[in-house]
Amino acid sequence: MSQIAMSHPKLPYIIIDDSVCSIQILPTILDLLTETESLSLSEARAAHDMVRNYESQSLLRPLQKFSKITGQGGWQFTAMNPGGLTIAVRDARQPNWRLIVPVFSNYEWRFTDLGADPNEQAPLLSYGYKANLRSVEAKFGSDAAMGVEEAAAVTRGWTDENYKR
Description:
By secondary structure, the protein is an alpha+beta fold. It has helices spanning about 25-35, 40-55, 130-140, 140-165; strands at about 75-80, 85-90, 95-100, 110-115, 125. Helix content is about 35%, strand content about 15%. The mean pLDDT is about 80. InterPro entries: Alkaline_phosphatase_core_sf.
């Protein structure tokens, strides 16, 4: 288990005991800076805009595991590299499952159960969706395979929408 400590004169003592990932650090820092009024007005506006555009969630906010309206999972997406060649996706209902989806077909699909492999030393890797799906089902069961299917579909919709931007 990894830990991170943040210190700020206006920051109250809090412990977050939840499954988190590194992509939540920047939104958390921006959230802390705006909530503690540590920035000028123009800086606070810029930080607020960045938080809304960043594809993850601040650790200061309760993790929204699903939509109260639709019941759909609280999906989190992150472009893994500057070229946007892979997208990391996880569902807040199953925060230990992490899927890396290639945007182009010549990159690997990657599935990790962070509960069993927190440092992602032994992910399931495959150059095809169906092969990855089969290996996830064989190792982690049908619930994990259904999670991969939903994650792949939601990620395709997310990438299509972002491509239009």
